[in-house]
Specification:
The complex is a heterodimer. Chain A is of the alpha+beta class. Chain A folds into two domains: 3-120, NADH:ubiquinone oxidoreductase Nqo5 subunit (Beta Polymerase, domain 2); 229-571, Cytochrome-c3 Hydrogenase, chain B (Orthogonal Bundle), CATH 1.10.645. Chain A contains 21 helices and 15 strands. In chain A, helix 8 runs antiparallel to helix 9, helix 9 (306-327) runs antiparallel to helix 10 (349-371) and helix 15 packs parallel to helix 20 (553-563). In chain B, helix 1 (16-25) runs antiparallel to helix 5 (136-152). By secondary structure, chain B is of the alpha/beta class. In chain B, 34% of the residues lie in helices and 12% in strands. Chain B has a four-stranded parallel sheet. A two-stranded antiparallel ribbon of chain B has the order 1-2. Chains A and B meet through helix 6 and helix 9 of A and strand 3, helix 2 and helix 3 of B.
Chain lengths: 572, 184
């Protein structure tokens, strides 16, 4: 599918393209740096690539042009995506794409922070994940992984200039002709929401400039839970990374496990067994339900509806028992394996799941009954934190937050993986793109996930869960103890790790919050050369400032809850 | 405590320390300093199935000034550390800290440039709870241990307690040197 994009680019802008290549079906086009803006604009405006998925930095210390910056752009109506890359030397600036997509702002800041690649014409080029006193650039190959740097005090986000600007705008609003009383910067109050505020869901921070209770301007700051996933990935073998993926979106770790395993299988050309696929769908959808339950439950608490929290958390607890029975742990599941799964289902799994799905039905009905016509809930969610379809796409939204605006993009439908094409399910969408639509979308998605689970249970085939492939799956213990081949196979897999062939590919799926993907670059050494996670939360939180401007503080909390920002995935 | 049989007014005699500690240990007001996965398990501990209130610690406060037990649930990064220190300083005496999960205890399997290698480099810790994340039962075990510890304490401030414990090494707490620039 994506060849079409490459061909179109070759025809229209052949002079800008230096080279192009593909690996595992993913096309990368290397372009002339001076033409990068034109190529991206062409892809966006003429070829319908509405979404800037990610901006990826890569460091090649041995090359003269040391850094590579890769823009991942995709369409949301057709299964088309392409990676556009440029090479730059140390200190050489890349023209920013922030004028084309608003999401480029944060993605480029991340590349600047971790690689030290500057971007020209960028609106706000500051560090984003590491703190402002950090020296050096952490994802460069020559930065030692364990070299921590202490911070003496948090950064002030809104400068005097920002506050003066906001005051100036407010004055103009009051008196367009510039007559009469002006709003003075000291009329505003600066308050920090977070990073330890309970309503900020973990450790998000936004410095807000408020006038009474109205947010005049805000500036979000992230990185408080930056656990260096990508650096850790370069330091571990492919199989060892699995437990780290648990802790990305810790509300739905199964989904992270499964999608990560898929991304590596794609590079190794491994096809998992039929039973494994169905079990993966089962656990993914269970995880999606749990994630949505946590999000909806806590979102409603933020609006003062504590009862809903008990209703949703009771079912969630019941579902955790399934997960615990399945893999021995409630939260950090570590269940998927490259080429299969760690265990098969336990006896009685099907009955337990069916019983607990009935509980889910009850709980959703209760929540809907309590909320749907509740005056307080409606007042606090309708029209709050609304975003238009165009803005949502420009900000790089995916998942329920995008679907709430009416865009029907779901990776499960557009790029069927794990056999989703064989299931019968709908994509719930909203219209208004506000807090209410997002909550309703999540509630409706749980019903669809339940349908998927029921279908998966009905069709669950017998057979092995792991592929019969000595390159990825450990041999059975009897073989290890009784034959030299078995010992060697075990030894090689453990000590050298999976041998993923050199190349780069992007494996992705529909996470609970949107498109979750792993962009892997392998150099064939048994460890990733570079792994970039595309966390769905990251671009969504980038829109926070736009969502809450002009609203009340309490609305900001309600809107934030409905976006379901999970810090583990946001900051990685 | 003992009942004075000679006195008809049903008066209980006890030592002040015992009576105060009895009150303190069964009415802990926790502030959750939740940053990551452990915070999700903390929510499970508070909700109805596991129910933290069985141990007298259900009154979760989100203002440090109203809390006497800080439960640090999750990874603390270098970026977060100064904030953790400030929040701890804002709590009134007496105050205790439970470090929930291996990330808070030692940095866990995040031995890297972003993660503080144990919160005891920034604030003193009373009880360390292992696990990644600890189950609610694990957390309750930690809480009960803290209650036992409170029972043995004298009526001194936590600063004093930690100074004493560092001197004679009898009480669980910060045994590791605090790093420069972040000392408590």
């Amino acid at each position: 599918m994506s060849e079409r994009l490459v061909q179109a680019l070759r025809q229209e802008m052949g002079d800008a393209i230096l080279s192009s290549g593909s690996h595992c079906g993913d096309h990368t086009v290397k372009v002339d740096k001076s033409r990068l803006g034109d190529v991206l604009a062409h892809l966006k405006n003429q070829e319908g690539c509405a979404l800037l998925g990610d901006v990826i930095g890569v460091d090649h210390p041995e090359r003269e042009q040391r850094f590579e910056v890769v823009y991942y752009v995709r369409s949301v109506d057709r299964p088309e995506q392409v990676w556009v890359s440029v090479d730059v030397e140390e200190g050489e600036a890349v023209p920013s794409a922030a004028g084309l997509w608003k999401s480029a702002d944060w993605h480029e800041r991340e590349v600047y922070d971790l690689f030290g690649v500057p971007f020209s014409d960028h609106p706000d080029l500051r560090r984003i994940l590491t703190h402002h006193q950090f020296e050096g650039h952490a994802l460069r190959k020559d930065y030692p992984i364990e070299q921590g740097q202490e911070l003496s005090e948090p950064e002030k986000l809104l400068s005097d200039h920002d506050i003066a600007q906001a005051a100036h705008r407010a004055s103009l609003e009051l008196n367009p002709e510039g007559l009469g009383d002006e709003v003075h910067p000291s009329d505003f109050l600066t308050v920090n929401l977070g990073p330890s505020h309970p309503a900020m869901h973990g450790c998000l921070r936004a410095e807000c400039l408020i006038d009474g209770e109205t947010i005049v301007e805000s500036r979000p700051e992230i990185g408080y839970l930056h656990r260096c996933f990508e650096k850790e990935a370069e330091d571990h073998t492919w199989a060892q990374i699995m437990p780290y993926t648990d802790r990305l979106n810790y509300c739905s770790p199964m989904l992270n496990n499964v999608i990560y395993a898929m991304s590596v299988e794609k590079m190794m050309g491994v096809e998992v067994t039929e039973r494994c696929q169905v079990i993966r769908v089962l656990v993914s959808e269970l995880s999606r339900i749990i994630d949505h339950l946590v999000c909806v439950g806590t979102n409603l608490v933020d609006m003062g509806a504590l009862t809903m929290y008990w209703y949703t958390f009771n079912v969630r607890e019941a579902m955790y028992q399934i997960i615990e029975n399945l893999c021995g742990s409630r939260l950090t599941t570590n269940y998927a394996r490259i080429g299969g799964l760690s265990h098969d289902l336990y006896p009685g799994f099907e009955e337990e799941v069916r019983a607990k799905l009935a509980m889910l039905d009850e709980s959703i009905t209760e929540v809907v009954k309590l909320a749907a016509r509740n005056r307080i809930f409606l007042d606090r969610s309708l029209g709050v934190g609304a975003i238009s379809k165009e803005d949502a796409l420009s900000h790089g939204f995916t998942g329920p937050a995008l679907r709430a605006t009416g865009v029907e993009y779901d990776a499960r439908k557009l790029h069927p993986h794990m056999g989703y094409e064989d299931y019968d399910f709908d994509i719930p969408t909203g219209e208004a793109g506000d807090t209410h639509a997002r909550i309703m979308c999540r509630l409706a998605e749980m019903v669809q996930s339940k349908r998927l689970i029921e279908q998966a249970l009905d069709k669950l085939p017998e057979g092995p869960i792991n592929v019969d492939d000595a390159r990825v799956i450990l041999p059975p213990k009897e073989k290890v103890y009784s034959s030299i081949e078995g010992v060697m196979n075990q030894f090689k897999l453990i000590y050298e790790g999976l041998q993923v062939p050199a190349g780069r590919a992007y494996g992705f799926g529909e996470g609970a919050n949107g498109e979750l993907g792993f962009y892997n670059i392998s150099d064939g050494t048994g460890r990733p050369y570079r792994m970039k996670v595309r966390p769905p939360c990251f671009p969504i939180f980038g829109a926070f400032s736009d969502l809450v401007r002009g609203g009340m503080i309490s609305d900001a909390i309600a809107a934030l809850g409905s976006l379901n920002i999970i810090a583990g995935e946001l900051d990685r | 405590m003992a009942v004075d049989l000679n006195n008809p007014g049903n008066i209980l005699t006890t030592r002040l320390r015992q009576a105060v500690n009895w009150g303190r240990k069964y009415s802990l007001w926790p502030i959750p300093y939740g940053t990551a996965c452990c915070a999700i398990e903390f929510m499970a501990s508070v909700s109805s199935y596991h129910d933290l209130s069985r141990y007298g610690a259900e009154l979760v406060r989100f203002s440090p000034r109203q809390a006497d037990l800080m439960i640090v649930a999750g990874t603390i990064s270098y970026k977060q550390a100064p904030i953790l220190k400030t929040i701890y300083a804002q709590m009134c005496e007496p105050k205790w800290v439970i470090s929930m999960g291996v990330c808070a205890c030692t940095g866990g399997f995040y031995k890297n440039y972003g993660t503080l290698q144990g919160i005891d480099r920034v604030i003193p810790v009373d009880v360390y709870v292992a696990g990644c994340p600890p189950t609610p039962e694990n957390l309750f075990h930690g809480l009960i241990q803290l209650q036992e510890k409170i029972d043995r304490e004298g009526l001194v401030s936590s600063d004093e307690r930690h100074r004493l414990s560092a001197a004679n090494g009898t009480v669980t707490g910060s045994g590791r040197p605090t790093s420069p620039g972040m000392g408590t």
